[in-house]
Known about the structure:
The chain is of the alpha/beta class. The protein has helices at 2-9, 16-26, 75-78, 85-91, 111-118, 134-140, 154-162, 196-208, 212-230, 239-244, 256-266, and strands at 68-73, 97-101, 122-125, 132-133, 146-151, 171-174.
Amino acid sequence: MERGxxxxxxxxxxxxxxxxxxxxxxxGLWELPVELCERRPECGxxxxxxxxxxxxxxxxxxxxxxxCLYIIQHPAEESRVLRTVPLLAACLPPDKCKILVGRRxxxxxxxxxxxxxxNPNTLILYPGAEATNLEEVAVMSSGPSxxxxxDGTWSQAKDIFYKNSLFRxxxxxxxxxxxxxxxxxxxxxxxxxxxxxxxxxxxxxxxEKNKSIQETxxxxxxxxxxxxxxxxxxxxxxxxxxxxxxLYDKPMPKNKRKLRxxxxxxxxxxx
Length: 271
């Protein structure tokens, strides 16, 4: 019945002779050689294609830091071409930058992470009403710290933070800064939203009390953006900038909560 209905809806069904002719006409196509798509060889240190390797912009030796970073990476970030976490990891010793990929982190599956989250010297970098400014915490810090940073879009980071009870155990901190993101090849929600690499650079500079750390970690990001812009990429202004200047050309969301967030962006209200 379904096949008959489909044929009736699209006109007369082709005869067996016509079907045979069509198969014969396509027969040669199946014999054509298939060209395999090979990924470009990647640099083992910066994870960039070898032809656009950014190692010349990385520190010759990993930075000496006492703070250990745990990067909690959303799976969607792992496949992004222009991700910043590999550049961050290349700047630090392997034991000072550990990357865990996933959405849900239970104590049973991640016992090491659970131990880290229960450590009184562990901080989690996530803004909010309950977060303390990192500068205030750094002043009182007396020894090496561990910092957890969530890598993903803002909605992905929010989902990971609120749906994993382990991440409510460490002291919550935030960055109090007015610097604008240099990651200009990706759209940010507001002018002061920073990429994971930039957050880590600022946080390590505060925790280690060493301003040169920020400059060193940002150097490969600046080189990445410069290269992309020279080869056709466009500068991405923040959503806040586009809305305030009447340049936002996408349909406004129908969801009331999302629409309210966009109104707050336009009116300079912190969200």
